[in-house]
């Protein structure tokens, strides 16, 4: 049965979001992983529909003609076609981004659709091993072995709500949709702290947080486009250091792009210098350092 058309306020119960901020966060996640599925024109249509879904977060009953007119005005007459908008709707529905409800007027004629944006799905947790519950037995040795085995089981995985307060919530809210356990989220933020300290910008919290979020989004896009990344956190650190290196250099006065090389004394007495700012082969250099007894700057 089709819904009766009416004012957007009458469709508040179809919203899946508690606030506009939450809706925007979920849309950022959708675009991070699904942006490549849309053409340039379709993205323009999707983003405009998102803007028309702000009054009731995630819900819009705007007419296609109204949306196309707004786009045409924004782009000074170079808008998109109705067919492009409809292709976007079909793709968004197939990808799970949108749920569409048809509405009708009081006389039974069809009215504009009700577009309801869906929440970005949480990542599926790792497959948990099935636990063998001990059966009743008169064999005391068998019962003791079962109790011992139970004590050695892996600890229960804690979700994102257990993440340390030291990790910014903006970072937690992003990472939790892809890596939901608290330990993994904290490990990713630890990489951010290491990189920030390395480039002497650990006190510039807002800038570092923004760069960390950009780097993580770039990691997710890469993960979605290829299966060749063995260690995502290492790949994330590589993206992060490149961005922070650029940030660091932009903070320096003109003609002051120098860095102080790090000095390592290896066990065989060899002195190894590594310029962390200008050397790209950090992994190969660090691989030579095995059981250093002395290191410094």
Describe this structure in words.
- There is one protein chain.
- The strands form three sheets. A three-stranded antiparallel sheet has the order 2-5-3. The chain has a three-stranded antiparallel sheet with strand order 7-6-8, with no helix packed on it. A two-stranded parallel sheet has the order 1-4.
- A hairpin with a 5-residue loop joins strand 6 and strand 7.
- Helix 2 crosses helix 3 (64-74).
- Mean pLDDT is 77; it is low at 124-138, 259-267, 271-276 and 278-297.
- The protein is built from ten helices and eight strands.
- Helix content is 45%, strand content 8%.
- It has helices at residues 20-34, 40-51, 64-74, 82-95, 140-151, 169-175, 182-198, 205-225, 232-251, 282-286; strands at residues 3-4, 59-60, 98-101, 103-104, 114-117, 262-265, 271-274, 294-296.
- It is mainly alpha-helical and 297 residues long.
- The longest helix has 21 residues, at 205-225.
- The chain starts with a strand and ends with a strand.
- The protein folds into three domains: 3-117, Winged helix-like DNA-binding domain superfamily/Winged helix DNA-binding domain (Arc Repressor Mutant, subunit A, Orthogonal Bundle), CATH 1.10.10.10; 160-251; 262-296, no CATH class.
